[in-house]
C-alpha cells in the first residue's frame, strides 16, 4: 500500500483558504494536532483516534487508527502530536502509561510502530524535537520525564522533577538542547537534554498546578505558562532569574496556551472547566480578551493554530464531540461591547468613577463642583499603538471624597482589634463585644450583642426560682379544691360568699419547695367511679397554689404579705371565660334551690371535704425558649447588617454563635461575607485578625486561604543547592544541612539561620553567641545580626 495520499499547500502564493466549519466526532476529544503542511488534523481521545482532511468547505475523515475488535488501552490517548519534520510520524500519550509512535506509511491496517512502557502512571504530554527527527520527550503523572530515541527500543535519558506529576513538556523553538517542564506543585523547570541529573533552572510560576507552557515561536526567551490560579504568565528566561513580564487574569483554570503565529503579543487559551470559550489575548491589554470563539458547548480540550505562519485559522477539539475550524475574522470582539466605565471605593469611603468622555461632554445638565473641577490629572494617556488593533477610548475620572469626620473608619479598626471571637464562654464573649461596641458609641450593635446573649445562653438557676424547682417536684403532687380559689383568675375565682374572708387560700412559705403528700387525700373522689382528673382549659396554675404546705383550716394573718421573686417572663395570663365544671358538680348546681346567678356558679364548686383533684408529674410550661426559636430572627438581622455594609458584625456573630446559627445560612452567603470581611481587614493591614477569622471559619473555601504559599524551600548550607528530601542530610553533598554552627549538633527543632550566609543553629545558642559577637559562629566572616 502506498503512503497515504496528501494534499500539500504551500504558504505564500497559494495561501490557506477556508471558512469557519465543524464536524461531529464519535467521542469526546482530548487533544488535536495538525500536520506540517496544514492539510490534515489528527484527533485523539479515550475512544477516538482519527485523521481528518481539511478541505475548503468541510472536514473529511481519512483514516481511523483504532483497529481491531477490542482496541487496547494503547489507543486511549491523553495527548497526541504530529511530527513537524516527518509527515508520517505521530506520537500519542496513553492513559495506561504507554508512549506509542505511529507510522502512517505502514502498509498494514495497524499503523502502530513502537511502544514504550517505562512510565508507571498516565502520560500527560508528548513532544517531538522541532528539528531532530528521532527525538521524543514525554512527561508523566509519575513525576518523570523520558527522552526516547526512536531508533532504539528504550529511553535514552530519564529526568526526575522531584514532584508529584509532570503536566507539560515543550522543547524550545530556538535553543536546541533546552526544554521546559511544568509541574503540579506550581514549579517550572528548565532542563538541558545533555544533563539528566539535575535541572538548569527552577522557579515557582503559579500558586497551584501549572497545566501548560509554550515557547514563543519568534522571541527566544519568552515562555508562557498557564495554571489553576486562572492566570497566564509570560516569563523572560534570558535573565539570570526568570522574570515575569506579562500577566493575564482569566476567569477559569487555564488548560492550554498557544502563541499566535506572526503576532508577537497574541496568544490563545482555553479552560479546563466551567468556561467553554477560546480566548485570544493581547498580553499588553490583559484585562479584556482581544477575540473570543464561542462555538463549543462543552469544555475545549485542545487548540492548535492551523499553520505555524498563518494567524487566521485556529483548530479546536472539545468534550462536546466536535472539531472546529475558526476563522479569525468571525471571532467575537469583546472590546466592542465593553463599557469604558469604572467604579471603585477607596479605603476611607472615597468613590472614584471613570466614564466615557463623550458622555460627560454631551451631558448639559451636569453641574460643576462648587470648589472647582474634581478630576484628578495624575494619570497620563497611553499613546495609541496601531499594532494593538484596539479601539482607543478615553475616560474622565471623577473622585468624590467623604467627610473624614463623619465617615472615619477608626471604629472598624478598633472593633476588629478589640472583639473577642473565641477562647471564652459564649456569654462572656457577648458581654465583652457589647462593651466594646458601647465604648465606640455604637449602641445598636451593643444592644444586638446583649440580645444574642439573652436569646442563646442557658439561664442560671436562682435560689428562689420556682420554675426550676417545679421540675424537681415529687412525681405525684396534689392540692385541694379549696386552693382553686386562686387558680381561676380574678373574675372567676372560687369564692365562698360575699363578705367571707379568704383564709383558705394558703400561700407557699419562702424557702419551702416540697408538697406534703397524703395518701388518704389521694383517694378517689366522692361520688365518682374511678380516679378523677380535671382539665382547666387554658388556665394556668399559680405557683402558690401548687405548694400548699399548711392545713386547709389554718388562717394566715392579713398583715403578712407573701410575694414571689420577679421573673424574666410573664408566668400567666388572665382567663376571661370561666372554665367548665365537672359533670357531677354541674348536676349538683342544677338541683340546688338556694343559690342563683354567679353565686350558684361559685358555691356549687365548694366541696364538702378536702379531696385531691389533680396530680402533676411534669412541668406545666417550658422554663426557657430554645435558641432555635430565635434563629430566623437572627438570620434576618445578620442579612440586614450585611446589606447595610457592616459585614464585620455579620461575620463576628457568625463565628461567636457557631453551630447555633451556621446551618440557617447557606454556604455561599457565608463565604461571601467572609471574603468581604477578610478583604477589608487586609486592606487595613490587620493581618493577625484576618488570619484569626480564616482559622475560625468553617467554610472550606475560606480555611484554605492561609494554607496557600506556605511551602518553605531550603538550601543546603554546604553546597548551596536546594534540599530535595525531608531529612537533615543533603542528598547531593551527603552533609548534615541543619547542624548548629555553635554546638555542631543536628538541629531537630526550631532552627534560626542568617539569610546572608545561610549558617545558623539552635535559637538559644545563636542568641547567646550574637550577644557578644558580631561575626558568624561558623567562621565564614559574615557579619550576622539577630533581630
Automatic annotation (TrEMBL):
SUPFAM superfamilies: WD40 repeat-like. Signal peptide: none annotated. The keyword Metal-binding applies. Residues 484-534 are annotated as: Disordered. Its EC number is 2.3.2.27. It comes from the Eukaryota. One of its GO terms (molecular function) is zinc ion binding. GO terms for biological process: autophagy; cellular response to amino acid starvation; positive regulation of macroautophagy; positive regulation of TORC1 signaling. Pfam families: WD40. It is found in: Lysosome membrane. The keyword Nuclease does not apply. Its main location: membrane. Pathway: Protein modification; protein ubiquitination. WD repeats lie at residues 116-158, 203-245. It catalyses: S-ubiquitinyl-[E2 ubiquitin-conjugating enzyme]-L-cysteine + [acceptor protein]-L-lysine = [E2 ubiquitin-conjugating enzyme]-L-cysteine + N(6)-ubiquitinyl-[acceptor protein]-L-lysine. InterPro entries: WD40/YVTN_repeat-like_dom_sf, WD40_repeat_CS, WD40_repeat_dom_sf, WD40_rpt, WDR24. Belongs to the WD repeat WDR24 family. Catalytic component of the GATOR2 complex, a multiprotein complex that acts as an activator of the amino acid-sensing branch of the mTORC1 signaling pathway. The GATOR2 complex indirectly activates mTORC1 through the inhibition of the GATOR1 subcomplex. GATOR2 probably acts as an E3 ubiquitin-protein ligase toward GATOR1. In the presence of abundant amino acids, the GATOR2 complex mediates ubiquitination of the NPRL2 core component of the GATOR1 complex, leading to GATOR1 inactivation. In the absence of amino acids, GATOR2 is inhibited, activating the GATOR1 complex. This is GATOR2 complex protein WDR24.
